[in-house]
Amino acid sequence: MIPLLRAELRHGWATWSGLAAVGAVAAVSFSAAIAMLEAGLAEGGEILDASVSFLSILLILNVPAGAIVIAAVSRLAVGLHRAVYARWQLAGVSPAQTSAVVISQLTGVGLLAGFVGFGAAVLIVPPFLHAVFVDDSSWWAEASIRPGALTGVIVVPLTTLVVLLGGFRGARSAGRTPALSALREPEAEAKRMRWWRWLLLVAVLLAAGFGGALAPFRAEERSTAISQFPLLPAYLTAIVATAAPVLSPLVLRAWTALIPARASATWHLARHQARYHLGRSTASVTPLFVGTALLGGLMTMSATTSTAMTSAGLPGNFDLGIMQVMLLVGGPVLLGATGAAVVLFMSNRTQASEQALLRASGASHGVVLGAAVCQAAIHVITATLLASIVVFGTALISAAALGRFVPAVPVLDIGAAAQLVALGLVLTVSATLVPAMARMREPLALRLAAE
Is residue 219 domain-shared with residue 297, that is, in the same domain? Predict the structure, then answer.
């Protein structure tokens, strides 16, 4: 078992290192929240109460978002190796042993991500929190907040657990699926919303929808309603992410159908590949969707609230600064900027095989490279469209809830979200284009023989 585990980690290093990178970014965001609690525990009194309040908000905004992204990437990591696991079973490895190896891989990667993320947080979190509170007059502006032993004890297991839970279903599937079926199973098979997923969606709608997103309408005071607004993007993101197995393919198919396949050969190939590899497309879309939805939703909520309160002549500063926003959703934003690029890096081996077959069938270098760029753009645009559901929903709900107390209209602030989308597009295209260009210099016969 141990030699098999080591050999697979060496063979699929790109896939597992990509998952570890995503997990490490999530671990950094977890560390910032736990470090503030650790500082509060050391200080006690009102500082502890404030740190607990901070922790609850940060965990609600960061842990579900990180879990959604890591789960999508974990499922992809397992899915990309289904053929390998099938060959193991053909060679005599039992289904139980196959599942055990996959679970061991996920556990090892989760531990690595947790330790690397915590180590990075020790260097990153103190100057980051100082920049957040530098203009504040409270105790937090003077304190030196550094992740300590308590943060590490919580963050490393939490990151490992999230990675393991995200890929657990795929690990069980790798062991249960007959070997020959796994070898010939097309990746194009769309995800169906199984009965438990529908139950989960109903539960999320009840908890995050009626219990969370509509909570401001039950508030009897204006201040109470406003205090609940920052969580609106998180609630709506959770709802959309739960429905992603159905919603994401529908959105992708709907908007790509607006551009006919005859527009160009590159677009035809890119659209077909994005639709065929639904698992890879969903994993690419999820990180950028989550980051853009939370960032755009928070900025829109702040703009809507600030505009309404200023127009009503009420005192107070309701604008969120960019550092305050990064404290709230910095982890999901980083995952959004890098996640799609990491997913495409993880899928590099599969893409190499597809591009080699295109070249062998007569496609020019320009067509192959153009299709790669278009496919990256398809993922980014799909993520943006899904995020727009959350942003518009946040604007409408916050304006309607605030309108019970003062005149309010929805105000969109998508500048920061647009910058995140642009950065995600650049990184995603680079992660697709640079390896593809490097492969163009390889002899085609060698690439086909390798596959």
Answer: yes
Q: Which two tokens stand for residue 105?
A: 């891989």
Domain that holds residue 31: 1-185
In the numeric block, which tokens belong to residue 343? 């997913």
172-181: pLDDT as tens digits: 877 776 666 5
* Distance of alpha carbon 339 from the chain centroid: 6
- Residues 415, 292: Cα–Cα separation, whole Å: 11
pTM for the whole structure: 0.85
Q: 280 near 384, Cβ under 8 Å?
A: no
Please say if the pLDDT value at position 315 is more than 70. Answer: no
The answer to whether 397 and 216 have CB atoms below 8 angstroms apart is: yes
Residues 73/66, Cβ–Cβ less than 8 Å: no
The whole-angstrom separation of Cα 7 and Cα 1 is 10
Between 56-70, 235-249, 272-286, the lowest mean confidence (pLDDT) is in 272-286
Give the whole-angstrom CA distance, residue 90 versus residue 85: 9
Whole-angstrom distance, CA of residue 242 vs CA of residue 176: 25
Residue that finishes a domain, picked among 152, 185, 218: 185
Do 45 and 105 fall into the same domain? yes
Is the same domain home to 164 and 313? no
Task: Kindly list the distances between the CA atom of residue 35 and the CA atoms of 121, 144, 264, 341, in Å, as whole numbers in the listed order.
Answer: 9, 10, 52, 29
Average pLDDT over residues 80-85: 76
Report the chain's terminal Cα–Cα distance, integer Å.
Answer: 26
CA distances from 95 to 86, 87, 102, 163, 185 (A): 9, 11, 11, 21, 17
Given 162, 185, 208, the domain boundary residue is 185
**81 Cβ partners below 8 Å, 6+ apart?**
8, 12, 15, 102, 174
Cα torsion at 70, 74, 80, 82 (round to 10°)?
A: -160
